[in-house]
Amino acid sequence: MILLRLIDEINIFIGKAVSYLIRAGIVEPDLLGHLNGEVTVGMKQWNAVGDDLKATFNEIVRATSADASAHFLHRDLLRKKDFVAMGGELVQLDEEAQYNLRRYSLEVVDDFSKQDHKYCGRVGEMLHEFLKVTGRA
User: Fold this and answer.
1) 3-class DSSP state for residue 90?
2) Alpha-carbon radius of gyration of the chain
3) What is the pLDDT, as a whole number, of residue 22?
């Protein structure tokens, strides 16, 4: 439950930031884009199926996620093109704004990690690690 609250808090924060910035046009980079799909399966049920079925299921989920991501990205690009054609403006966030969004978002993540180290703590650690690996931290 805390993890869902964490996700909600991050979405609310980003939503407020984007709603403030979006007055000038569509903000880039895309801060809320769809990049993955997730399927949750109970551990008991997962352990009950064989490795061959697990492998098949995993490949189906990956293929579906990749297909969905491509679809959503393609639609986003088409809608941006339409937006510009109607006189809208694409606004690029500068490095400082992107840095501040990450910094303040991480503060929210870190607060939740302290409140619920068992679940949110690991997610916070993973997010920090991801940002370091991708050169965003």
Assistant:
1) strand
2) 18
3) 47
